[in-house]
Structure formats: structure tokens, C-alpha cells
Amino acid sequence: DDKHHHADYGTYPAYNAVVEVVGGNRWGCCHNTLQLHSAVKRGATTFFVVQNLTATPVLKEAYWKKNEYLSVSGSRSSAWTTATMTKAPTLSMVVQLATNVRNATEAEIAAAPMVPPQHRLLVLEVVEPIRTELDISDWKSVKFRANFWPREAVGIEQLTIEQQYNDYTPVVGDSANYYQLQLHGVRFTNCVDCWMKGVRVTHTGHSPLVNHHIYHNTFEKCDFSQPYYPFLSGIGAVVFGGGAHETLIEDCAFNEVRHVELRSSSSGNVIRRCTFIETDPNFALGYSYENLLEGNNINTMKGTLW
Question: What distance in Å separates the CA atoms of residue 19 and residue 2, rounded to the nearest whole number?
């Protein structure tokens, strides 16, 4: 049923959302980190990685099994920093293991670049080909962690969220750009195979929709419109960031939101048959790649594309 949200949120803490779907991290295994050992070509499904045998705790095999999800992080070398970037682009990926992690064979070890002392060479095989090259001469500190524990197969359908009350009083200690009731409408964090369908979000104190570290999600026939602060820096956007991958945004409408952002290493996403009114699709914060926009209607005349 269509449920209409009418609420006075008082002095609700900034950056919370009315509806949140949140997965987690296995904090107890964050030290179980594998380092990329050699370059990986775009389209590859196999990685050679090394584990430092002197690190503690040792690798827990239970966290590196078939169908587990891994988070991958890294950053470009400083040579990639340009005059238009404040720092080198960062990498954020989600991969799913196609097989259990295994020790490299003798032939693989012989063919690989020299493995550092006190390290062992392991092999990761993933389900989907990667969409970027991981040349270790360009990337530094590319790390695989088995601490990604996503929320899976959660849907939000036929819901309307409207923040009817807004307070312009600045919160003590914050800058003039941040106000009370700075609520997101919906937020997905660490989610896989989740979806929204037929959802309307309007008049939010912050962003109508925020996504971080999502994979294979779907947003269909949703309407996001008129946040209270559409033109303050960092506020009022629909955000697919912090690594949004292989996600479909289809038949949605965006009306007077700051941006629809595919940012911070987002890849493999499709925005199709959507309507943008005084809103722009936007690639922000560096290194978004292999995303597709097709069949969209973009009508923006106010000069707010910044």
C-alpha cells in the first residue's frame, strides 16, 4: 500500500535517512587483507594476490569462500593528480568469488613476478570480469578485504516520503550550509541485489536518495524531487557514490535536485529512459568509468550544472 510519511523530526541528527537499508562489515577480519601482486587487465576474472605471513591474525579461510563478496580499495599514484583534482583518484569495487581462494600452483608461482619474502601467492577468481585495468605501476595499495557483509535482496516499493517541515536555524558549531532536519529520504549502504520501485521522495532536508557501496541494485519508476537545499555544496543530490556498481536506474524522474551523481569509482551503471528537469546527470570526484546513459530526457535551463 502507498503509505504517506508525515512527521516532525525535531532536531534529528544530520545525515540520517527516513528509510535505511544497511549491510555491514565483518570488523573482526579487517586485518585479513590480500594485496594485489601483479597487473590485471580489463575483462579479467583472475587475480594474483599476496598475503603477508608475518601479519596477524592469519588469513581465515572461512571468509574467502565461493560466493563471498570482497571489497577492493586502492588509489592512483600521485602522478595521476592533476590541476583539476585535489587528490589522486581512488578505487572502490565489489567482487564476488567464483571459487574458494586457493594457493597458487608451482607453475603459477614460477611465472609470476617475484613474491616478497614471508609472503605467499594466492589466486582469487571472481564471477564478473572487471571493467578497469589494475596496473600496479599506476595503482598503489590495491587491497582485497573479506569484510564486506552486504544486505541482500531487500526491496522498497510503493512508498511516498515527504518532509513537510523544515527549519533554517543553523546547528551550533556547524557552518551556515548545514541546518537542522538535514535528512536523506532513502539510503542504501553495503547492499547487493536490492531495489526500489514506485517510490516518491520529495522535499528532503538533504538528499532524496544516497547509495554507498552497492552492487546489482535496481531503481525503477521512482520520483525524486525538490529537496530544500538543491544548490548548497554537497546537498540535495541523488548520489550513487562510494562505489556503485552494475546498477540500473530506469524510468525514473528527477526534478530540481542538485545532481544525479555517479561518483567515486562507480562503474557499470545504466541510467535509462529517465527524465531530468532542472537536474543534470553528473560524474563527480574522479574515476567513474564504463557507465551508460541512454534514452534520457534532460531539460535543464537555469544554469545550475555545477
Answer: 15
Provide the percentage of residues in the chain whose pLDDT is more than 90.
46
Contacts of 134 (CB under 8 A, 6+ apart): 36, 39, 40, 47, 74, 91, 142
Question: If 0-12 CB within 10 Å is exposed, 13-18 middle and 19+ buried, where does residue 160 land?
Answer: middle
Task: Evaluate if residue 8 carries a pLDDT over 60.
Answer: no
C-alpha cell recorded at residue 275: 527524465
The pTM of this model reads 0.84
Task: Give the least confident one: 3-7, 118-122, 191-195.
Answer: 3-7
> What would the 3-class secondary structure string for 262-298 be?
EECCCECCEEECCEEECCCEEEECCCCECCEEECCEE
pLDDT of residue 216: 95
Angstrom distance (rounded) from CA 15 to CA 18: 10
